[in-house]
Structures are given as C-alpha cells and as structure tokens.
Amino acid sequence: STTMKRLTGYLAPSEGYAKIAGLDMFHNRIAGSRHLGYLPENGPLYPEMTPVDMLSFFADARGMSASRKKERLEAVIDLCDLSTVVHKATSKLSKGFKQRVGMAQALLHEPDVLILDEPTAGLDPNQIREVRKTMRKLRETKTILLSTHILQEVEAMADRVVMINEGRKVFDGNVDELRAVEANLDSAFH
Description:
two-stranded antiparallel ribbon
C-alpha cells in the first residue's frame, strides 16, 4: 500500500523517485494523474450521492465536456456493470457494488495505468469473480498494478509479480516462477 501511495503521488518518497508514464509523481503529480486511475483499498465514496451523480461530479472536476462526460459515464457504467444500481444512494450499495463504483471513478478519464489496492478484500466469491472479469477486460488495454496479500489473486490475475516485504523486494518474476519458490517466500513473510 505504501508503494502504491508513492506511485500515485499521495506520499513523497524518502529517497529515489516514482514515475508514471515517464512523469515524476512527486514533482509532476497533476500531469501524472492524467495517466493514472487509482482505486484505494477503501475508496472514497460519497454516501449520499448515487453512482451516476458521483461519476458526474468527478467528470466535471476533470473538466470533461458535456459530450465526453456522457460518453465516459455510459462506458464506465457498462464496463463496471452498474446499470442496476446507478440511481441508488451509494450508502445503500453492497461492498461489491461500492468497489465497482470506485473502479468506474478510477476509469472515468481513460487512464493508461490503473493502480488497484486490495480490490477484492472483503468481497464474496461472486463479487470477486466480477472484479476479476472486469480486470481481465482492462488488462487488454491498460497497465494494471495490483496490490494484494492474497496469493490466489496473484495467481489468478498477474503476469508479473513483485513481492515486497518490509520495504524490500523479495521476489520479481512471473507466476510460474512464483509457484516454484512459493514455499520459500511464505517463510520470508513469517
């Protein structure tokens, strides 16, 4: 989570730098954020707003034209399968639908890079399948950085795996390589 916050520009690195789309996220956070969609573990939602109101608010905050806003709202509502809840108060939605609303907000401006921090935490198996389905669609056109403590999520979703323990990289490779060293890595985390 700390690495994700540094990549998004929410935390300044104590040393080194974090770049998104070639832009230093500490010095060029606004420009970098145009290329970045971020879904924190407990995404910020406005409980009194409906998903469509919230998405409209964020589109306005990003300065989208009326036609672009309409196009993008339709696209993310469809992609995140929100049509059945789009006019319900966010506070009345299940955790799974709240995650989808957060994902829609992160995708609203069509970022090149999507950072997801524990996107399936606390979801039931059906909701996990829906999040995975959406991520599979997205990874065809976007770079997705996924932070999770659940190795099954890594195996189900990742092409490349970087594991960090206490601020140090302990593994960098593909899922097959991860399986080969998983027992050793498990002991590194305990």
